[in-house]
Amino acid sequence: MPGSVVNSSGNDTDRFLDSEFRYTLFPIFYSFVFIFGLTANLGALFVLRHLRNAKAMNEIRIYMTNLTVADLLFVCVLPLWISYYKERGHWAFSDALCRITGTMFFINTYCSVLFLTVISFNRYWAITQPLDAASSDHRRRGILVSVAIWVATLSAAVFYLVEPGTNDDALNGNVTRCFEGYHQEESETKQTLIVTHFIIVAFFFLVFLLVVVCNLLICRTLMAQRLKQVGRQHWRLKKHALWMVCVVLAVFVVCFVPHHVVQGPWTMAVLKLGGWEADTRQRLNDAHQVTLMLMGLNCLLDPVVYCFATRKFRRFVASWLRRMRNAPDCASHTASTNMSVGSQRHAQLVPLEPPRKE
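Below the sequence we write its predicted structure tokens.
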């Protein structure tokens, strides 16, 4: 969840403990993610649209398309977060927009986690049951699983839409915080928040365990096939599949695991549950800010997963890049050909001069 609050003080009860580096780093980082994330995910949608007629691609294409949509939802609200951090933590927009942007952050995080999980399961099925994967559509299954993921994620995100998202911080320049300021909540509300956060963290690590097991099984299957089957083409395909395993695990380890490791202690420090020293709270706050940035990277890394997940996606991208690279040469060749044809026509239209008599 975006934002970070810890108690500090004058009297260590009401003031907002900040991480000053985020006001410089976040606008730059989120601008980078916005530009390249928007480009990469729109490009991914373009490729997936052109692969819609591939029968064996239908199920995983559905998962990839939904994951891309989740990434674009987050990318599209990044300009609002950029403005928030440029204004040094002041939300200049309405409370409704604050709720929407916070909800998009939540949806992107957990839709990404769940769709990467089902993509891993789909690749495990494709590797262990290649004939079924090649000859079956399973489009209905892809739609049903995607609907279930969206329903579950949106149901969990309703809390962020119905509850107020903004808080006035009069002690720090009279600014309006967006999804920050939980240290000011009542004791009962704090207990609800801590339970909710720990449920989310426990859910994430359960899913992460399933992803690790699934990808280890993929590696074991691929390595066993390598011992039985030889051939350059066959091993090239297996190598790409192994790279997909590495990229999926990298997305989890880099983007999601650090945030969920820090989230529990950070929440307790924010809500002043337990004896936390001021230095410890500051370090947890700084670490939490860094993990928020890391989660934004998944919008850039997800299209990389698509390239290694399916050969058709990879081939389409490679073919398109070759066409783009060869386009200037083709244009030059076409121009020179047209000039040559034009010269020939001119020669046919203009008669040759008769030989001069001496």
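The chain has a mean pLDDT of 81.
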